[in-house]
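During the reporting period the student researcher (J.K.) took over the structure-prediction task from the postdoctoral fellow and processed the backlog of single-chain submissions. One of the processed entries is reproduced below for the supervisory committee.
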Amino acid sequence: MKIITVKDQVEGGKKAFDLIKNAMGNHEIKTLGLATGSTPKTLYKEMVTSNLDFRNLQSINLDEYVGLPANNSQSYHFFMEEHLFKAKPFKINYIPNGVAENIEAECIRYNKIIDENPVDIQILGIGENAHIGFNEPGSSFGSETREVALTESTIKANSRNFENISDVPTHAISMGIKSIMHAKKIILLAFGEKKAEAVKQTITGPISEDIPSSVLQLHPDVTLIVDQAAASKIDA
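J.K. obtained the following structure tokens:
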């Protein structure tokens, strides 16, 4: 695992963008795996303000809340439109349908999309409890796309985006850990002191399903981009 320590989230976004830009310049990327939340916002800002054209690329998102339609301002469809796709369209954007009539069938459909469109670079954030995507502690390393119940800590962390904690969805469709690990390259972003323990466990902790991100120790090409606060416990 390659570790890049940066001053702050803005610099982290620039570093991640440079990796994507170089891969595009070398024609090494056809499918880009995308994440949501506050962590990748500075990366998407770099992409939006760049002169790069993404219309030959396709994107696959990690997850979506169950029960939120695409036009809901808290859905990940909406997030991606607002922060990236509206300004920088891709050839095709794949995001799970959180209001599908049959969620199980939607998970099977989405998993097929992932299998048929191998991800060249996967952008990942990390939760305070070391979740990746919505693969919470205890998720099988062999998991594929499925409906997951969100932990109380994840619901609380995500409640900052909702008026009330009771408005936060309790379930999501998430790409599984097995699928994430199939990406050729992974860029893991972590910013802020609250992520410091999860970062430490990701790098030096035991490889355990109780620490979902620890599986990344087994991947052949991971770049971890962290600010100084998130890196503060690495050598502790």
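The committee noted the following: The chain has a mean pLDDT of 96.
J.K. will present the remaining backlog at the next meeting.
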